Amino acid sequence: MTRRGSALVTLVLLAVVVNLPLLNHAWTQWRLDRSGVDVTATVTSHRLVDPGGDVSHRIWFIFPADIDAGRSTRRAEVEKSTYDDAVASGRIGVRVVENDPAVFRADGAVTSRVLLVVTLIADAILVVAFLLWRRFRDRLRPPLRTVALGDVESCEPGALLDRLEEGLYLVRGEVAHVEDGRLVLEVGDRSVEVLLDGHHNPVGRRQPAQVRARLID
Length: 217
Fold this sequence. Notes:
The protein contains three helices and twelve strands. The chain is rod-shaped and about 90 Å long.
């Protein structure tokens, strides 16, 4: 895999990890909307929580036995009006996936944009980091400089920097840049500049090529 390909794969993997919580939340909401059922749950406890003056209304409840045979206690943070009604009646409406009672959404549930905002910020940081890497990668790791000892040849895809003898290498990679008298090969995670020194290059950009070359100090 070329250096550009490796960077793209890394970016995609990081993006998946960063976006996984948001994707999981969206998947849960889709399941509830598509296959959830509305039930009435029994309130078992309630509490007002005051973290720094921002009151949180929390309800604990259990589902009917036909929804959750284990009758596990669930918790939801709800709006004040829903909280007052639940405390007064001892019941609260909940939408739940029948075969998965851990997936539910209580009536009047308080929603937060924190997850969305954090994910968007993380995505923006990833994009900026990738763009900076593309712009400055050659400065951060200068390419190896070589001079060709023969014509450049087409070859099978792959990356190789094989030392044949003292100072002599077989260089194989993807052509990243080509111009008169010079080309740059992407060899794994390194760039190798090849000065043609009068030798012929029939290989175009983004094509695999190989050449015997001498390393320049």
